[in-house]
Design goal:
It contains no helices and 20 strands. The termini are far apart. A hairpin with a 5-residue loop joins β15 (115-120) and β16. With 190 residues, the chain is an all-beta fold.
């Protein structure tokens, strides 16, 4: 409170106090989940809303500050960071164009650990929520082929490989050649 003094026309002072009552406003957030195929980047963002409080019968809202980008929370410290968050064996989280981008490691499948995301309202009050991506497996298939010719003649054949998803091509190159499987070890061999 603050004390205020005023005087009447006779010069007689009078004092009174003014006490503001500040009602807290708490922003809210709803977690986000996304699902996509193995190896493909995913983007998502929890839904953040400004907090609303009723003052003298009138609802008032303090909005989320759209001039400030969301921040990832470092899983080690719990503090906001501008650095990528890397979860070993799963993938990397970054903020791009105001959203969380998750780039899974090529072999990762399943529901990731996820990352906490934080925003602030225009009063600077922080609010956080989790973003959790799920990566579904992509399993290519192979079709056996056979060939037939007379004894002693050389034969050729190429098995047919089909991608598990059109977005994940099967590439056979000099750097990534198709390999024969050793019948004794069951492992690829040159």
């Amino acid at each position: 409170p603050v004390t205020i003094e005023a005087k009447d026309t006779n010069g007689t002072p009078v004092r009174t106090t003014y006490t503001p009552n500040i009602k807290p406003v708490t922003p809210t957030a709803t977690p986000a989940k996304t699902t996509d195929i193995q190896g493909k980047a995913q983007t998502g963002l929890p839904e953040f809303k400004g907090g609303t409080v009723t003052v003298n019968g009138v609802p008032k809202t303090v909005e989320i500050d759209e001039t400030k980008a969301p921040k990832l929370l470092d899983p080690e410290t719990g503090e906001p960071t501008d650095e990528p968050v890397v979860i070993p064996g799963e993938g990397t989280y970054t903020i791009e164009d105001g959203k969380v981008k998750f780039q899974p490691e090529p072999q990762f499948i399943g529901t990731a650990t996820g990352v906490e995301v934080q925003r602030e309202d225009t009063n600077g009050t922080p609010v956080k929520a989790k973003y959790t991506p799920t990566v579904t497996p992509v399993k290519p298939t192979g079709e056996d082929v056979t060939s037939e010719d007379v004894q002693g003649a050389e034969q050729n054949g190429t098995p047919k490989f089909t991608p598990g998803n059109p977005d994940v091509a099967i590439t056979i190159t000099d750097e990534q050649p198709a390999k024969l499987i050793d019948p004794e070890t069951g492992k690829p061999t040159d």
